[in-house]
Amino acid sequence: YCVEFQLAAITPGCVHSHHSYTRWMRYLREGHTVCVECQHPALLPPSQHCHGDGTGSQENQLLHWQAVGNHRCKGTWRRIRQLDTCSCPSVHSFLFI
Which InterPro entries does the record associate with it (predicted)? Predict the structure, then answer.
């Protein structure tokens, strides 16, 4: 399954990343919607949900995230909805790990 989130806040560390494998972080913007896919092995038994997917969160609750590969790139987002059939676009699509 996938979860759509709206980015609420992003640290400056995302913009100032210089490694080639973190270049995508420069394109994150507050207000953008991102799609995050939950796949095996990130699925937690027995609930079969990914940690951090916002299941059970209050409407408009800010949830925290951190990018892999750059500990200075983190922020908050709001859960919009869960999609049982993933159709994440190639841009602004991520995986739970």
Answer: SBSPO, SBSPON_C
Tokens of 30: 């507050």
pLDDT class of 92 with cuts at 50, 70, 90:
low
The number of distinct structural domains making up the chain is 1
Q: Which two tokens stand for residue 47?
A: 């609930």
Structural domain range at position 82:
2-95
| Radius of gyration of the chain, Cα coordinates, nearest whole angstrom | 13
Residue with tokens 């209050």: 58
Please state, in angstroms and rounded to a whole number, the distance separating the CA atoms of residues 67 and 74: 6
Does the structure show a pLDDT above 80 at 4? yes
What CA–CA distance (Å, rounded) separates 80 from 7? 10
Residue 76, amino acid: T
The mean of the pLDDT values for the chain is: 86
Q: How far apart are CA 13 and CA 80, in angstroms?
A: 25
Q: Which H/E stretch holds residue 97?
A: none
Note the pTM of the prediction, 2 decimals: 0.85
